[in-house]
Amino acid sequence: MLSEKVKALKEEINKYQAVSEEALEQYRLRFISRKGELTALFAELKNVASENKKAMGQELNELKNLAQSRFQELIEELSSSKVSETADHPDLTLPTVSGDLGSIHPLTIVRARIVEIFERMGFNLSEGPEIEDDFHNFTALNFPPNHPAREMQDTFFIEKDPDIALRTHTSSVQVRVMENQKPPIRTLSPGRVFRNEAISARAHCVFHQVEGLYVDENVSFQDLKQTLYHFVKEMFGKETKIRFRPSYFPFTEPSAEIDISCQICHGKGCNICKYTGWVEIGGSGMVDPNVLENCGIDSKKYTGFAFGMGIERMTMLKYQIKDLRLFTENDVRFLKQFTPFT
């Protein structure tokens, strides 16, 4: 009977497995092609009694829909099995994918080198908050109440609060160290600082400093000079010249600017050294007794020296970079050029 043939064909369709494209094509030819078994069953419908034709026609239509939906399922199953096989057995003839993981930022490279040199001289690292109060950023460092650095045009204040600001130097970290540690103190404070300056090839409102502090009995200016002489020779090479120019800072007395021979033009003159052959890399001096006393250290018993340098400036000199803005533009072509010191 036709109904028994439909039932048997339905079971075959549900159990059918297409393990290859050839098996899938055999399914199509047998069940859903114009010359397939379904077509033959529809041809037999004319022999069914009139009262049963409607019900049998519905069964045949359901079988036809089942055959077509099962065909789509077999296509998807076969496709999934191919993907799985490809994953298990990759094509070894394909070109390799680059394994580049990026590069270390030049400022990070130079900072690590600076820290390495001073750590060998016995300096340890210290860190502090980038948002500071007036005492640690100005008052403890002997800044008078009317000093220009306290004005809005030089400092970024937080929500117009005159007592809270983005730190203008990492000297604030040194203050915190002296408050919580008794001499001898030998510490290095690298970090990001903020000043309200116009952005140009030689200046930026956000930059990085590294500041050093040494406090103990009988510390002299000679100790400061020898420390910085050693650092410059290690950082820039033995042929590099260094000089100290008298200067003024509220937190040191006496004070001196630190200059080195220009690493870009080698003394011939360029826009970085302002055609003088010398480039300032930082400031230094003997810690003012008032600063020691503000931090609870006996200035009659202890003396100390401090220095501060710009990491961007030293990176420009080390790699002969003429525009400071390149450090913050995130141009991959620029950043990929740098490798750590060896």
| CATH superfamily heading of the largest domain | Bira Bifunctional Protein, Domain 2
Query: What is the number of independent domains?
Result: 2
- How far apart, in Å, are the first and last alpha carbons? 89 Å
Strand % is 15-25%
**Residue share in helix:** 40-55%
Which overall shape is indicated by the principal axes computed on the Cα atoms? elongated
The Rg value, from CA coordinates, equals 40 Å
Question: Which spans have pLDDT < 50 for at least 5 consecutive residues?
Answer: none
β-strand number: 10
Second CATH tier, the architecture of the largest domain: 2-Layer Sandwich
> Which secondary-structure class do the elements indicate?
alpha+beta
CATH topology of the largest domain: BirA Bifunctional Protein, domain 2
Provide the residue-averaged pLDDT.
86
Name of the level-1 CATH class of the largest domain: Alpha Beta
**How do the SSEs run, as a string of H and E?**
HHHHHEEHEEHEEHEEEHEHH
The largest β sheet comes out as:
7 strands, mixed
User: What is the tally of helical segments?
Assistant: 11
Q: Give the neighbour order of strands across the main sheet.
A: 1-5-6-10-9-8-7
